[in-house]
User: Fold this.
Amino acid sequence: MKVILLGAPGAGKGTVAKLLTALDGSVQISTGDILRGEVQAQSDLGKEAEGYMKAGDLVPDSLIMGMMEKRLQQPDCEKGFLLDGFPRTIPQAEALTELFGKIGITFDMAVNIDVPKDIILDRLCTRRTCENPDCQAIYNVKSNPPKVEGICDKCGAKAIQREDETEEAISHRLATYNEKTAPLIGFYEDKGMLLSVEAVNSDAVIEAIKDKLSL
Ligand code: ADP
Ligand code: ZN
Assistant:
């Protein structure tokens, strides 16, 4: 499947993407994960992106588009992909439409994962992320804690609170989401490409997507 996942930070895009990859071997492409990997590696891109990310600001569209143009042309994308955290702005969505045209990709749909705001806030404050860039497993201190506090079950690295998951950075990220990213819901709706799901849990989202794609 070739699907764009939309939703506020903490809506569960990453979780849904991971569950979907297991369905048909499509790859998850998380711009946040790629960027955190670049920062860790202190690549040129990582150095440029770092400051924006720490503040909870969006990384400039030009950097993101260059990165995604390369990523979407890698052979593992042929089978299908789940875009998680991209596009994030109307200019990115327009550039993506153009890029899809240029490299001959037809996508299935954009899925809006619709989660109430109070649940989002609570989730983000209690989220912990594995700091190993090759793992980035996600935990929640309340609902899904690692077996040993602060240690990733999967790889043994530290499971930490991300620097952009302090309360201040979170409210800033949510404001940025409302201003810059929420308009994408209308953008894809106008194209007749939107599936909106009120997400009580990730399984409900998976079922709605399977249904829509007759999987
Ligand atoms: P979340 O999973 O909470 O939605 P991400 O891991 O997707 O957050 O992104 C973390 C940070 O990486 C963002 O706050 C932003 O700085 C940057 N980022 C990720 N994707 C994009 C994008 N498509 N455009 C601009 N910045 C991005
Ligand atoms: Zn890990």
Summary: The mean pLDDT is 95. The chain has one domain: 2-115+174-213. Residues 130, 132, 135, 137, 152, 154-155, 157 surround zinc ion (ligand 2) (CB under 6 Å).
